Amino acid sequence: MPTDKSELAERGNEIFERVVRPEVDVDEEARKFVVVDVETEDFEIDRNARAAFDRLLERHPDARGRTWLRRVGSRSAYHFGGRLQNTEDQ
To answer: What is the pTM of this model?
Structure first.
């Protein structure tokens, strides 16, 4: 099991690319959340991150602390901050 957050992220993303991506239609599932258990490589996908997490925990109650969350079609689950805007044309 990964020992820190960066290892968890690396393992979660590797499992996503190897296990999850071949199983989903990225265009159809885009913007949905995927929760991956990095130990069992099991996963759940849902528009609601909490619903996906809860279903995964139903099958693997001991998965808490070893899950990775991201969006299908994105390298992360959430984005923080604003957008850069070109003000030269205004």
So the answer is: 0.77
